[in-house]
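Recall that a protein's primary structure is simply its ordered list of amino acids. Everything else, from secondary elements to tertiary packing, is in principle encoded there. The following example makes that idea concrete.
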Amino acid sequence: MNQQPLDELPDVLTIPEAARFMRVSDGVAYGMARRYRSTNGREGLPVFMAGERMMRVAKLDLVRYVTGETSHGVADNG
């Protein structure tokens, strides 16, 4: 897995792009995204819907998530 430098990432990422950045599998990242949606944003990878079926991750939210700057950051994912 190659990790892109942060400044080269697009402002909006797909789940697989976010997974590569976090160095987890796509399946794990999709699970984290589903958890975010099922808990109304209390836990999991922050995503938004782009259409009816496409989940996307804002780069700013991803950075906050992996650095623990959110109330549901990495340390809280258990």
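The beta strands are 12-14, 48-49, 55-58. Residues 73-78 have pLDDT under 50 and may be disordered.
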